[in-house]
Write a structure and sequence with these properties.
Radius of gyration: 23 Å
Shape: globular
Number of helices: 11
Distance between the termini: 13 Å
């Protein structure tokens, strides 16, 4: 009888704890108190929506700029805005890129900090063993992302033949700098799944960026089908840091007023939610109560 009661206590406590998590995660949330490190106009740029264009306005409200969704991405904030300047793309630029300053968008969701950051060379080219290696085939983010781009778009066979050529040409033409300055359009929480949704404004067809400076004979192998790839973002949330990117874009209905091309694709990233601190405290207290009850039962027995 006592054994059955103990099992019932455990099961009901677990159900209550799981219900608390579900309830805590069911509320919609958006990024609160957003801030960006660095100087506007140099380290980051702000784009607001005006009609069907994104127009640069570094004095725009950051909260308003980030007030978008997959259906209507709106404006965006571009991190590491000087990534494509000669400082990082000149012959000596790759050396400077290794330790380039990081620009971060910081805010909170459910009282927990969320940090979205740009990348530098150390992020791309540091291997799992801690060495810095820019070569094709190295075990680092640069090579994983590079192969993922073409595999996700159905061009693994082309990379098997031209991979080294495309990689090295891109390396010398500032390819990785170009994909280190993410344009964040929105940070929302899905009310149905509680997943965090992050929108990145990019090129609906990134072919000209990925295949820049390549011989036409190589480019011809990719045909006219859009080659989709978002910029890469470094994300820290709930104590976990990860690199996020997407190879699937939807049309944003927008173009950047300064070049008439950028921001026409929306790449949405999904991040699993983290329970609120109050929920975690409740779980901890619940667990402590169960242990105390177990000790009391043991002593009684």
């Amino acid at each position: 009888m006592a054994k059955a009661a103990w099992k019932f206590l455990i099961s009901t406590s677990l159900v209550a704890s799981m219900s608390a998590i579900t309830a805590a995660s069911s509320f919609a949330a958006s990024l609160t108190n957003p801030t960006v490190s660095g100087t506007a106009g140099t380290d980051y740029l702000l784009y607001k929506q005006v009609g069907n264009q994104t127009v640069r306005d570094d004095s725009a409200s950051l909260s308003t700029v980030l007030d978008g969704s997959a259906a209507s991405p709106g404006g965006n904030v571009e991190l590491f805005a000087n990534s494509e300047t000669s400082l990082y793309t000149s012959p000596v630029g790759l050396t400077n890129f290794k330790t380039a300053p990081i620009t971060s968008l910081t805010g909170s969701l459910f009282g927990m900090n969320l940090i979205l950051s740009s990348l530098n060379g150390a992020d791309w080219f540091t291997t799992k063993t801690g060495t810095y290696d820019t070569s094709y085939g190295a075990d680092n983010l640069a090579n994983r992302w590079f192969k993922d781009v073409f595999a996700a778009n159905g061009f693994s066979s082309v990379i098997n033949i031209f991979g080294s050529t495309i990689y090295n040409t891109g390396l010398n033409a500032g390819l990785f700098q170009r994909f280190s300055d993410p344009n964040v359009s929105y940070v929302n929480q899905d009310t149905a799944t509680s997943d965090i949704k992050i929108g990145l404004a990019g090129h609906f067809d990134a072919k000209t960026l990925l295949l820049k400076a390549l011989p036409s004979s190589v480019v011809a192998n990719f045909g006219t089908t859009p080659l989709q790839a978002s910029e890469v973002i470094k994300l820290t949330y709930g104590g976990v840091t990860q690199y996020k990117y997407s190879f699937s874009a939807t049309g944003s209905g927008l173009t950047a007023s300064d070049d008439g091309i950028s921001h026409n694709g929306n790449y949405e990233l999904t991040v699993q939610p983290v329970p609120e601190p109050t929920t975690m405290l409740g779980l901890a207290l619940g667990a402590s109560g169960l242990l105390a009850a177990k000790r009391k039962r043991s002593k009684t027995a």
